[in-house]
Amino acid sequence: xxxxxxxxxxxxxxxxxxxxxxxxxxxxxxxxxxxxxxxxxxxxxxxxxxxxxxxxxxxxxxxxxxxxxxxxxxxxxxxxxxxxxxxxxxxxxxxxxxxxxxxxxxxxxxxxxxxxxxxxxxxxxxxxxxxxxxxxxxxxxxxxxxxxxxxxxxxxxxxxxxxxxxxxxxxxxxxxxxxxxxxxxxxxxxxxxxxxxxxxxxxxxxxxxxxxxxxxxxxxxxxxxxxxxxxxxxxxxxxxxxxxxxxxxxxxxxxxxxxxxxxxxxxxxxxxxxxxxxxxxxxxxxxxxxxxxxxxxxxxxxxxxxxxxxxxxxxxxxxxxxxxxxxxxxxxxxxxxxxxxxxxxxxxxxxxxxxxxxxxxxxxxxxxxxxxxxxxx
Length: 377
Hints:
The chain is built from 17 helices and 9 strands. The protein is α/β, with parallel strands linked by helices.
């Protein structure tokens, strides 16, 4: 397997620990280069450019008087490098991401928590990574490797029209296009408007990666995270998450439904919504709408039964004002529907607790008109 190449653009050696983590992987090669030394050949040879946001040790830049020749930070450098990549077109794209220890500054006036995908979208980037604390670089390394490998796995040539386009996409998502059992999953993917039409062929791949990073992985669409799977199984989320780490039987049971395509390691495990539903339909012999039967039948497959969710019927996944999932579930009576600005129309409905909406002006402004009356009770 050809290694993917990660080029870290930095003006210091502060990321030596991260570089060592990357060097230990058989999937990528990584090197650090000072922004003053980067060349077009370096850009063309890279699958992922990771640009440090804070560039304070750049004497050559600081000695120039013209402000148009003085990129003030890594974001400006990333924009310049993007321009050169567009000019020197190549068969496969190069992803560009920012690495920052000051995400609050970059995010202002947006909340920084759980908003990396929005920051990346607004700044014409594939992603915005937060610097890891000393000794905690492994998770960051996993994400970088996953993104670089996703770029490497993109087709060198994209079809121009017809079903071949969808087949290339489903291959990236690890779906067998010819298997009738995947028909529902493929329709769900199509319903999320993948950008596979009318785009330049070499940049086409980045459009697909951005769609996954910015519009699919952060939201409950055709893929579900642990919160939505636990809610569908009507089991406690904390118990479910712990069991994923401790009970190999749980992993085995859910293995056929787990997502294994590009970027599958980027933001934690995900499962195909359609496969979960089909699995429960078969498990309950068509009674998958009955939460007690779902939970009872599912628990029989495990080493240790999982605790019921609270509420035990129709638990709702809610978010806070930073759009982070709340650990506890809520009932429909305790929740209202909201419409965040960047929530995709094809994603599952977003909810927040009524009490939180009452006390948070931002959330209150997002409540659907039809649910506003419920805030008065």
